[in-house]
């Protein structure tokens, strides 16, 4: 029983580590700025 509890705690800790790693290891400057609203749309080729 103790072994199952230990394994469950280890799995929970690993899950929390993965979530923390993915949340806080993003871009250093944040998200890139949005594209200009007055920029020309790409031309449509047929």
Describe the structure.
There is one protein chain. 50% of the residues lie in helices and 0% in strands. The protein has 46 residues and is mainly alpha-helical. It is built from one helix and no strands. The longest helix is centred in the first third of the chain and has 23 residues, at 2-24. The termini are far apart. The mean pLDDT is 82.
Topology (SSEs and partners):
Layout: H1 2-24
Question: What's the quick description here?
Answer:
50% of the residues lie in helices and 0% in strands.
The major β-sheet equals: none
SSE order, as H and E?
Answer: H
Give the proportion of residues in helices. Answer: 40-55%
| Low-pLDDT ranges | none
Number of helices: 1
The global form is: rod-shaped
- Oligomer description: single chain
Question: What average pLDDT do the residues reach?
Answer: 82
Termini separation:
68 Å
Task: Give the beta-strand count.
Answer: 0
What structural class do helix, strand and pairing data support?
mainly alpha
Work out the radius of gyration. 23 Å
Please report which band the strand proportion falls in: under 5%, 5-15%, 15-25%, 25-35%, 35-45% or over 45%: under 5%
